[in-house]
Amino acid sequence: MLWLYLHFPALQLNSLAPTEQPRALVCERSHTLVQLNGPARAAGLTPAMGLAMASSLCRQLEVIPYNAELNTRRLHEMARQLYAASAEIMLFEPDGLLFKAESMLRYYGGFTRYWSTLERLLNAEQVEVIPATGLRPANARLMARAGQACLDTAPEPLEQQWQWIALQHSELPAKTLSQLHQLGLFRFAELLQLPMSELANRLDRDSISYLRTLTGQKASPVHYFAPPAYFEHYRELPWELSTSLLLREYVQRSLTSLEQFLKARAQVTDAFSLTLHQHQLAPKVVRIEAGRGECRARVWQRLLDVKFESVHLDTPASGFTLRADPGYCDSPEHRDLFDQASGPCNRAELIALLRAKLGAEALGYVPLADDHRPECVAFPQPGTGTVTADTALALRPSLLLKTPRLYRDPLSIVTGPERITTGWWDQNSVIRDYYIARNRQGAWLWVFLAQGDKLSSPAWYLHGYFS
Amino acid sequence: MHTIDQLLKSRLIHRGRDLAPPGTLQPSGFTPLDQLLGGGFPRVGVCRIRSTPGIGELRLLLPCLLSETAKLSVFISPPGSAYPDFWQARGVAAEQLLSIETQSVPQKLWTARECLQSGCCNAVILWQEAIRLSDVKRLQLAAAKGQSCLWIMQAQPTTLSLPLTLSLRLQARAKGLEVSITKRKGGWPAGPVCIGWQQLWPDLALSSAIPNNSRPLQPHHLQSI
């Protein structure tokens, strides 16, 4: 059985923007270097070196705190990307992925083509990686963590190679390691000369079971990775950005990933929410709705640009999370092949664009209500169904004012009255006599007479235009 | 001469002999108006209607709005919201009509531009009094891109000359509407022509029995009813 292990020595560091300056990630608890970039390594720094020594060796060293959670999150993203090329993947948090290469060899027709496909995906992600093959998962992991890149597939060299790895690169506990070093044993080849029963007397149970998985006497447990059903991306920004306009290019990359994610599943989604993480303030959530199923990054970007014009950050943003709504299968829209007049976007796209810029309330829709009182009717939202017009009613105005307006100019009544009354069922009862009237300019108005009380005299109110 | 050449170069003077023929037209739905306009309203362009609100300016455009039911009709900041009972009784479905309410002028113009160039709008009607020359040029480009027509509704007369495809002035008459063409691309001002409402809107036309300038009614008149 052939396995491939990928060790990512600097996952968090690689997700930052590249730099020519020496840069290192430091564990905040132990003050030791964890991940280093090329210039830092060239300056003579090594992993696990103390911070004091590192800064005395390299004066310009840029230090960033190491965050194991971020690293793990990035590893999950890598697994999601590589899942497109390989079926069975196992996660070794925080920095390794194991592939069951054997099952993919027949599909790709050889290990070389399998690896070149993986390599192409890895190059696109721009991460440092140490690949190693092995006959058992533990062997491949040992080789990769020791920094021994190896892409052999023949069983004999693979069985030999791992035995020459130094014991210190293994997962043996520090106490066992020092015991073995005191005995003069430094490599696995030397250790395995001894009979296993003898070793069992000297070493603890965990070390023995580790040795047995390396030699293949014991199978290691396998839990395969399954990609999540939804899309979620978290990105830390290289520096804090104070305007949403600068954020654009970083979000664009995530939108491209979203498009790939959806296209690979032949899915579309209705909306996504973008959470902007701000310092010392609650995160700001921007919701973008397409109004219908959409997967194209170009369309999302347009909506986001329009939305960003009205989004103001109170404090600079340090990162963002992009989470898409659950995707569903797309049913292609019926387009007229010969309709030359149809423009670049369709109705749903236009409504989504207007909603993003002006806000949903500007589109002037209120929920559908079947009511005879003019205040209670309005157009339903597009796509929610249709109201059937009551043609038995007298003529209604084409434009209705939201609130009736006091009208003082002279009027002449043409038709009326038409009484609209009651509404006791929702404590909003009205009794009004409506008239169709004409003013001096010749405008046709829908007016009612409000009966005055003790304080006010009766007055005409304008409620609509017969435009 | 020098200055005339400059003006011609900067396209501020148009020669009568260079008159572009009017683009494609669509019947307005009113025969006397079609005869006056040489076929109907323009299908593409920026038009203006100057009228007092409420005299029947939307009813004039109604046949035009009904011509393409697959496309949207957009109202941008109308003086009131569209009343569904009226529009549906005339065959304009709810999902065909989009009403947008915003008071900011840049947003109104942005919305009009986006709607025009989207190509999915049949007609866009914008209520906006003051409008700049550069904005009208931009709207013309957007209308050409999306093959749609913008109608600007204005109540106040302006002195500013705008590059409009068509400009109409409406005046209320007892029996209907008097339409005159004040400006037309590829044509001359014409009119007025009278459109009678008796057939289409019997409730909204005065019969000859009632004189147009009848005695105005004040609230106290009605109390005795």
Automatic annotation (TrEMBL), chain A:
Keyword DNA damage: yes
Keyword annotations from UniProtKB, A to Z: DNA damage
Domain UmuC: from-to ranges: 25-121
InterPro entries listed in its UniProt record: DNA/RNA_pol_sf (IPR043502), SulA_CellDiv_inhibitor (IPR050356), UmuC (IPR001126)
UniProt entry tagged with the keyword Mitochondrion: no
Protein name, per record: DNA polymerase Y family protein
From TrEMBL, chain B:
Superkingdom assignment: Bacteria
Signal peptide: none
SUPFAM superfamilies: P-loop containing nucleoside triphosphate hydrolases
Entry protein name: Translesion DNA synthesis-associated protein ImuA
Organism, as annotated: Gilvimarinus algae
